[in-house]
Amino acid sequence: MHRYFKAKITGNTPLNEQFRLLTLIPLSEIEIPSPGQFYMLQASSALVPLLKRPFSIFEHQAGTLKFLYRIRGKGTSCLAGLGMDDTINVIGPLGNSYPEPQEDFIAVAGGIGIASLLPLLSRFKKKAYLFYGARNSDELVMLNEAKSLSKEVAITTDDGSEGQKGLITDVLRDFLNSSRITYHALQIYACGPMPMIKELSSICMNKGLRCYASFEEHMACGVGACHGCVIKVRRQNTEDRTQKWIYERVCKEGPVFDVREIVWE
Amino acid sequence: MGIKRTEDKIQKTPNLSVNIAGLKLKNPVMTASGTFGYGEEYSEFVDLNKLGAIVVKGLSLIPKDGNPTPRVVETPAGMLNAIGLQNVGIKAFIKGKLPFLRQFQTPVIANFFGDSIDEYVRAAGELSSADGIHALEMNISCPNKQAGWIVFGTDPKIMEQVIAAVRRTTALPLIVKLSPNVTDIGFMSKVAENSGADAISLINTITGMVVNIKERKPVLANITGGLSGPAIRPVAVRMVWEVYKSVRIPIIGMGGIMTANDALEFLIAGARAVAVGTANFVNPTATIEIIQGIERFLAEDGLSDINEIIGSLITGDLNHDMP
Predict the structure, then answer these.
(1) Residues A82 and A109 occupy one common structural domain
(2) How many CB pairs under 8 A join A and B?
(3) Complex-level ipTM beyond the 0.90 threshold
(4) Is residue B247 domain-resident?
(5) Which residue among B37, B65, B70 sits closest to A224, beta carbon to beta carbon?
(6) Which residues of B have a CB under 8 Å from any CB of A?
(7) Which of A38, A60, A94 finishes a domain?
(8) Looking at beta carbons, which residues of chain A come within 8 Å of B42?
(9) Residue B31: exposed, middle, or buried by beta-carbon count in 10 A (0-12, 13-18, 19+)?
(10) Contact criterion met (CB < 8 Å) for A230 and B79
(11) Chain segment A75-130, per-residue pLDDT in tens
């Protein structure tokens, strides 16, 4: 069982202009990933782009790995250019995973953040109140799948092209204030842009809720060696029990952190 | 020729072992400091027993937090980093990381740095008394707080002082890692040799910068960073060759080595060993593939010993005064 392996591409399907679903068949026996873990994918064997890129696992089923990605820069453009039967080098599964929800839970996805949360929705079917926000309806990918796996779904877009117009965190706040449910035992799972996570963090502080979010940083090695992808977290000093901040690696101690531990700049 | 080659192949596999200042390496391929963690991070991908040596991430007397993010950014055929030498500190390394490395039959080279001569000396002292460290590699590409934050390795006087002071502290083989950000690398290598270095490693990263044109801001939080990867390889090979002509002590060459052929360029230019850095990020088994590739190259060329190739560069009647 190896975490560095070759895989054959059996699908690289455009969902629309920006989003694709990559399907890989590993050519050797692999470790089974948990929701929240990620893989480093090598988009090209040329020297540009040089480094592998991190992608959350979207689905693992019957010996195949699926990754949902958005074409954004050189790495993802290159990945989009790969076709059926091309082989790529992969490292993974890497990092920690979302802790198991105790009961029903809240999932908050911002745009492509749905890629990281969908395996959780899939493993704990009909347990999630999903809050899914994006810039516009085109960016609400995998919406039907997400709906079918969730207990309830709230949608927002920045431009109002689907669901409510506005921020998903505002809708979540209203939901928590509505007293329609007793939310105190619910844990929140989140993946999305930094401002969304930061806003969630303040909502959770306010309501006394626990929130696990998956973080992103510029990454080089993916295995904890280079210390490129760090994030500032609060930790207790074991000697004098005082609080201090340290840099932890998103690729190793993360990518999932309890947002109460994050030191926001 | 064809017959000879066949005979050689039957005879035996070529000797890959080299000697660096009394340290015997089973092959000339080591890891570059900062790209291989403390060994453990890559131990599931690489049989650490197969490496020539393991050079650990740079250590300091006091643990260092490192720089704010972004710390890394990809560049054409390379990457820029400003990690800020984040590390657990020498005490925690010896207690928490070194026992793991002691299980292997591979020499451990401790890379270290300081921001004053005193700190270098104390760091070298602590590392030298630890069990399981076989050589020291001194990173002199950091600023000196007692001399207006001038980088030790760019000022020959300060460089001489700090190397000489560390030399008096340790009996371990002392490798000095040179900064490429100087005008005359040959001269600097001579200074290192005369100050007591047992070996020279080069090159450290080349200072660089990337700008986000939309925001008109540097991409790295530290503004500048160190460039590594294949983009810097020709610079590194040239510098190894210049140092080879200047000093008698062994050279460890590095800078953008991705394949065995890349490593061979350094060996031919005069390096007795090489270090693999950024390539580990791209391919975690790069070191092993490079060792195998070097062995194959020697066998195919009918050579029985790696040492036959070291410094074997043929330049002809080159007039050095010409540009």
Answers:
(1) no
(2) 93
(3) yes
(4) yes
(5) B37
(6) 34-37, 41-42, 44-45, 57, 65-66, 68-74, 76-79, 81, 83, 86, 229-230, 258, 278, 280-285
(7) A94
(8) 223, 225
(9) buried
(10) no
(11) 999 999 999 989 999 999 999 999 999 889 999 999 999 999 999 999 999 999 99
Contact A50 B229 (CB under 8 A): yes
Cβ contact (<8 Å) for B230 and A50? Answer: yes
CA distance A9 to chain B (A): 19
Dihedral of CA B282/B288/B291/B292: which sign? Answer: negative
CB contacts, 8 Å: A52 with chain B:
281-282
pLDDT tens for residues A7-42?
999 999 999 999 999 999 999 999 999 999 999 999
Which of A94, A120, A151 terminates a domain? The answer is A94
- State whether A111 and A156 are in the same domain: yes
- Residue A118 shares a structural domain with residue A212: yes
Whether residue A85 is found in the same domain as residue A136:
no
Residues of B in contact with A89 (CB under 8 A): 283
Q: Do B230 and A224 touch (CB under 8 A)?
A: no
Domain residue limits at A190: 105-216+246-261
Domain of residue B267: give its range.
2-63+88-206+232-307
Q: Within a domain: residue B224?
A: no
Q: Are residues A82 and A124 in the same domain?
A: no
CA distance A9 to A69: 14
Residue B216: which H helix or E strand, with range?
A: none
Whether residue B57 is contained in a domain is answered as yes
Q: What is the model's pLDDT at position A45?
A: 87
Domain match, A46 and A152 both: no
**CATH code of A72's domain:** 2.40.30.10
Q: Is residue A88 within 8 Å of residue A42, measured between CB atoms?
A: yes
Among all chains, which residue has been given the structure tokens 């531990």? A261
Interface test with B, best of A90, A216, A227, A244 (most B CBs within 10 A): A227
What total number of domains does chain B contain?
1
Does A223 reside within a domain?
no
* Residue type for position A155: I
Nearest CA in chain B to A246: B65
Task: Put the strands of the sheet holding B135-139 in their side by side order.
Answer: B29-31, B273-276, B251-254, B199-202, B174-177, B135-139, B108-112, B54-55
Quote the minimal CA–CA distance from B39 to chain A in Å: 8
Token pair in block for residue A182: 């007793």
Q: How confident is the model at residue B8 (pLDDT cuts 50, 70, 90)?
A: very low
Q: Same domain, yes or no, for A60 and A179? A: no
**In sequence order, what E strands does chain B have?**
18-20, 23-25, 29-31, 54-55, 72-75, 78-81, 108-112, 135-139, 143-144, 150-151, 174-177, 199-202, 206-209, 211-212, 217-218, 224-228, 251-254, 273-276
- Is A230 in contact with B70 (Cβ distance < 8 A)? no
Are residue A132 and residue A24 in the same domain, yes or no? no
Q: What is the pLDDT of residues A242-262, one digit of tens each?
A: 889 999 999 999 999 999 999
The count of structural domains within chain A is 2
Catalytic residues of B: 142
| CATH code of the domain in which B175 resides | 3.20.20.70
8 Å CB contact of B65 and A3: no
CB contact under 8 A, A228 and B285: no
